[in-house]
Amino acid sequence: MFQNRLAKVYKHFSKLARKQNIACYRFYDHDLPEFPFAIDLYNGAVHAAEYKRRHGMEDEEHEIWLQACRETIAGVLEIDAANIYMKVRQRKAGRQGQYEKFNEEKVEKIVPEGDLSFIINLTDYLDTGLFLDHRITRGMVRSEAKDHDVLNLFCYTGSFSVYAAHGGACTVTSVDMSKTYINWAKRNMQYNKLYKSEQHEFIHADVMEWIDYMPKDSYDIIVCDPPTFSNSKRMEDTFDVQRDHVKLLKKLLQGCREGGKIYFSNNYRNFVLERDSIPAVSVKDITALTTPFDFQGKLHRKCYLITK
Fold it and tell me: If 142 and its partner were Cys, which of 92, 100, 167, 256 is the partner (CB 3.0–4.6 Å)?
């Protein structure tokens, strides 16, 4: 059953990916209840994350089952099973799942996205370092970045920053509370031969504290993709995207120049934007517009374009 489903979806998605010159994409996402994986292809390597559930198997039995699944994936894709990296995905508060290491092993790979390249880590963390669902959004930011000042908040590994720099941004400022990800973001910029110290700033800071002191009327484009919830030890207060998004966006609008744009997204399934409380010229829901072919009907994030 799993093999048949994999073969069907892989044939379909690989054809679409080839037409669009896309090397990294998701081709299976919990299609069958009995096989609850999110499976992404990264230019020849496979990242398969099993959604945590009550499967009723003992540890040894579960390992045997996982190995069988790995071999099935390898057979369908006609790749070596050693190129398939499997993890267990479970709910964790905010982005702490990103920050916590799985083990000391480290397998990094350089993968292409269009005419850019990104460093991914297939082993150490829950996520690889490149969120595939924001491919289109990254392209939108690049197309508007020329001669503009761009701010990337909760920047993670800096893919939006790289796109903005590639699009000809005057300056790109990247902020994240994780030193690991700030360094990773800088490496991505350097690998693409875009890094210029006078134009590209990487700031290790708590975003919610940093925006209280950010310069007013200074940015033309702000990218903000906050966690759903965070209670990190490095933060003084908790952050809840539903509760706090209006306060957050009001502060970001102060940092925007007139006519400036905010790309605001989050992964809270039940998120409701309080439009009437946001003092902006326009607020557009661009979720559908920014959803790639491999996430159609299965993407729970929201994405908005807010203009000052």
Answer: 167
Q: What are phi and psi of 48, to 5 degrees?
A: -120, 110
Q: Would you put residue 110 in left (φ > 0), alpha (ψ -120 to 50) or beta?
A: beta
**Residue 40: enclosing H or E segment and its boundaries?**
strand 37-42
64, 26 in Cβ contact below 8 A? Answer: no
Helices 59-77/2-19 angle, 10° precision: 40
Handedness of CA 267, 271, 276, 282 (dihedral sign): positive
Contact 239, 209 (CB under 8 A): no
DSSP 215: P
Say which amino acid occupies 214: M
User: Does the global pTM surpass 0.85?
Assistant: yes
Per residue in 250-279, pLDDT (tens digit) is 999 999 999 999 999 999 999 999 999 999
Over residues 203-243, the pLDDT tens digits come to 999 999 999 999 999 999 999 999 998 876 555 678 999 99
Same domain? 66 vs 163: no
Task: Classify residue 127: in a domain, yes or no.
Answer: no
Q: Are residues 66 and 166 in the same domain?
A: no
